[in-house]
């Protein structure tokens, strides 16, 4: 193990980026500057395709696909890494030689057959690798430092001796793009980044929790008829200030492409810096222009059959995890739910046929208007169950206040009383919830429109809406989940809060029954 003192001394005698970053990490940890927010963020599990059968791509009739691939290249994002970053991105190819064995859910370990651990053959593992962990032999639990044999986990940039004159550094690694045709001119662009290692967060006496081999993170853009309208950012701290869905005009851009700030160690992707996790505008710049590996997600917006890829994209069919299995035998696991090493994540080819993190909608003053459509599976279900009515529920929330707290008066004009915590699922215990309901006739394939009352009461603000399918007698027999709404005022930046919205939902409603 390398001591903190040795690394600090090495920093003054060398300009190697990896050493400097590691020293800064050490200093941050020692003086308690590393944010130790709750480790409630989980990588999404591998989700099956919308259809039970996957579709093998046909190379004919690809004009629309070609346009989508061009969009992926055109809007290649710029990622700004923290100057405290020690664990840098890489290509997947960089990691392939380091995978020594696979582990099954039952604990069976098999040596790696490196003839299949590559882009073209990774999906030839049993069951496309479903349930397997691609694993390394070397130690991978820095507390806070890696063993020398594991230093490849710093990534190629972390092992590089060079530095440009501006001292910022440049990362030149692949980013993996997925284009998703949602229909009606809506195309979602998903950009996934890969890191050999995720550095966890210090949690008091338990040490650094949440370390794992391999890390996949993403930024999502939405375009309509080729024009960007929004982007989704995914920080690990939940949603305050920088995560969520933002209008295109309020996003920082370089040459018309989105900029994202990457959290040191955990690599969450934020719109702003210095507000969540450890982000800044001082570290290496990762401009992915010319480095996008693009792919089409499914056959088309009607069939929504996930593609089965071939050739150099065959690795996208792999269904296992990209690093070692985690630990669950630490004594504090029952207290915090994590050990120092956790499971590696799934790969990037997940369920992309989903709405944005929240629906952007302008505020209005007198009443709310909602416009929406149902997807084909809902239409079929509604026909078979004699659905005649649709109930719309507008979910309104306001913070609970303590009347005995003189420092927290019930001030309807106080912006601190209506902050983005209203969007946080974990705030349910300290917000009041009010549902405003309306019922309209079921209109089948047509777009449904409803005008309804605003939220009632001081400081109640729109947070979400949901739908129910109902019989003629008014009994509702199926209800959707909520869709969060991010409200704003026209001609103003950022999210604002209010009691009524004008919402045009461009994502068809679909849910399980």
Helix content: 10-25%
**Terminus-to-terminus distance:** 54 Å
Work out the number of β strands: 28
Low-confidence stretches: 1-53, 56-61, 405-410
Outline the biggest β-sheet. 6 strands, mixed
Class computed from helices, strands and strand pairing: mainly beta
Radius of gyration: 24 Å
Shape call: globular
Number of helices: 6
State mean pLDDT (0 to 100 scale).
84
Count the domains. Answer: 2
Q: Quote the beta fraction.
A: 25-35%
As an assembly, this protein is single chain
Organism: Kwoniella mangroviensis CBS 10435
InterPro entries: Vps62 (IPR009291)
Biased composition (Acidic residues): 404-417
Protein name: Vacuolar protein sorting-associated protein 62
Can you characterise this structure?
With 513 residues, the protein is mainly beta. The protein has 2 domains: 4-336, no CATH class; 359-504, no CATH class. It has helices at 4-13, 17-30, 63-74, 92-95, 333-336, 376-384, and strands at residues 55-56, 78-81, 101-103, 109-111, 133-135, 170-171, 175-183, 186-198, 201-202, 208-209, 212-224, 227-233, 244-247, 253-254, 257-262, 269-270, 285-287, 292-296, 307-308, 359-362, 368-372, 389-399, 431-441, 448-452, 461-470, 476-479, 483-488, 502-504. Strands 2, 6, 14, 15, 16 and 17 form a 6-stranded mixed sheet that branches. Strands 13-12-11-8-7-18 form a 6-stranded mixed sheet. Strands 20, 22, 23, 25, 26 and 27 form a 6-stranded mixed sheet that branches. The chain is globular and about 65 Å long. It starts with a helix and ends in a 9-residue tail after the last strand. The relative contact order is 0.15.
């Amino acid at each position: 193990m390398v001591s903190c003192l040795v690394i600090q001394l090495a920093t003054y005698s060398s300009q190697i980026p990896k050493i400097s970053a590691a020293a800064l990490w050490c200093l941050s940890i020692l003086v308690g500057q590393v944010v130790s927010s709750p480790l409630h963020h989980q990588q999404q599990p591998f989700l099956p395709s919308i259809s039970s059968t996957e579709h093998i791509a046909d190379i004919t009739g690809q004009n629309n696909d070609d346009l989508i691939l061009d969009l992926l290249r055109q809007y290649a994002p710029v990622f700004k890494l923290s100057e405290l970053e020690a664990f840098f991105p890489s290509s997947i190819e960089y990691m392939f030689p380091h995978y020594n064995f696979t582990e099954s859910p039952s604990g069976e370990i098999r040596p790696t057959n490196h003839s299949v651990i590559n882009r073209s053959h990774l999906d030839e593992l049993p069951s496309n690798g479903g349930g397997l962990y691609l694993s390394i032999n070397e130690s991978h639990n820095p507390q806070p430092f890696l063993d020398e044999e594991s230093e490849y986990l710093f990534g190629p940039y972390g092992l590089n001796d060079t530095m440009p004159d501006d001292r910022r550094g440049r990362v030149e690694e692949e980013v993996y793009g997925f284009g998703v045709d949602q229909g009606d001119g809506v195309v979602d662009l998903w950009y996934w980044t890969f890191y050999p290692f995720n550095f966890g967060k210090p949690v008091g006496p338990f040490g650094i929790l949440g370390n794992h081999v391999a890390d996949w993170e993403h930024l999502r853009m939405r375009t309509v008829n080729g024009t960007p309208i929004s982007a989704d950012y995914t920080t690990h701290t939940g949603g305050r200030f920088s995560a969520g869905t933002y209008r295109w005009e309020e996003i920082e851009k370089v040459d018309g492409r989105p900029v994202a700030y990457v959290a040191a160690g955990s690599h969450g992707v934020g719109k702003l810096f210095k507000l969540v996790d450890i982000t800044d505008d001082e570290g290496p710049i990762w401009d992915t222009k010319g480095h996008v590996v693009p792919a089409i997600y499914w056959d088309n917006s009607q069939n929504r059959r996930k593609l089965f890829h071939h050739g150099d994209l065959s690795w996208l069919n792999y269904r296992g995890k990209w690093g070692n299995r985690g630990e669950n035998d630490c004594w504090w696991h029952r207290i915090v739910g994590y050990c120092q090493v956790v499971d590696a994540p799934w790969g990037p080819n997940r369920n992309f046929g989903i709405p944005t993190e929240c629906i952007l909608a302008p505020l209005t003053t007198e009443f709310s208007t909602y416009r929406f459509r149902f997807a084909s599976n809902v239409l079929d279900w509604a026909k078979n169950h004699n659905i005649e009515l649709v109930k719309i529920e507008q979910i309104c929330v306001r913070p609970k206040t303590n009347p005995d707290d003189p420092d927290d008066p019930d001030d309807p004009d106080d912006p601190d009383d209506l902050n983005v915590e209203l969007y946080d699922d974990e705030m349910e215990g300290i917000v009041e919830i009010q549902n405003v309901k309306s019922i309209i006739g079921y209109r089948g394939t047509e777009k449904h429109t409803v005008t309804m009352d605003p939220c009632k009461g001081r400081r109640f603000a729109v947070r979400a809406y949901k739908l129910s399918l109902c019989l003629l007698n008014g009994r509702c027999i199926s209800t959707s989940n909520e869709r969060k709404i991010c409200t704003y005022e026209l001609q103003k930046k950022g999210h604002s809060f209010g009691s009524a919205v004008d919402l045009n939902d461009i994502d068809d409603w679909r849910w399980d029954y």
